[in-house]
């Protein structure tokens, strides 16, 4: 009896997990077909990063999980930038741009939190507005380097944030 109950729970969990997997894979397939800048593998691994994505049953669940992983990433970028500044490997010019990037990514993180709040209150136009702000904030970091003719030491990080945010817009198109 006990074993049967456990087995049923196991099957239910497995079923929930595979529903979420299918949801993620189907979405990423469609998104990659529609948008040149969205790569299937990046999309799947990015969406799987949030533990809640494993129990996602619809695209709204997935959307919230995806924004949470974005906020984890922007917070992670703040940590990386702080570390680079501490190491003092670069000159004053690059450091000054990195300082600007810190504010940009703090701001982006705040905007991501506001995006989740807007979605939870079903205000999608507000959510899109906050998400656009998050995108512009992270682009501002790159722009600061470009305008001074400097090579950003965190190009990869800013690219990852950019591609992750594209996933958000692709998801909202399909809601
Ligand atoms: C999506 O699923 C969650 C539960 O996983 C539920 O709370 C929510 O209402 C669903 N949203 C839509 C739009 O179906
Ligand atoms: C940036 O990404 C490229 C390709 O993904 C990789 O080869 C390179 O090592 C990365 N650079 C840094 C600084 O992480």
TrEMBL record:
Pfam families: PMEI. InterPro entries: Invertase/methylesterase_inhib (IPR035513), Pectinesterase_inhib_dom (IPR006501), Pla_a_1-like (IPR034088). GO terms for cellular component: extracellular region. Residues 19-171 form the Pectinesterase inhibitor domain. Keywords: Disulfide bond, Signal. Residues 1-20 form the signal peptide. The keyword Signal applies. It comes from the Eukaryota. Gene3D superfamilies: Invertase/pectin methylesterase inhibitor family protein. Belongs to the PMEI family. This is Pectinesterase inhibitor 12. It comes from Cardamine amara subsp. amara.
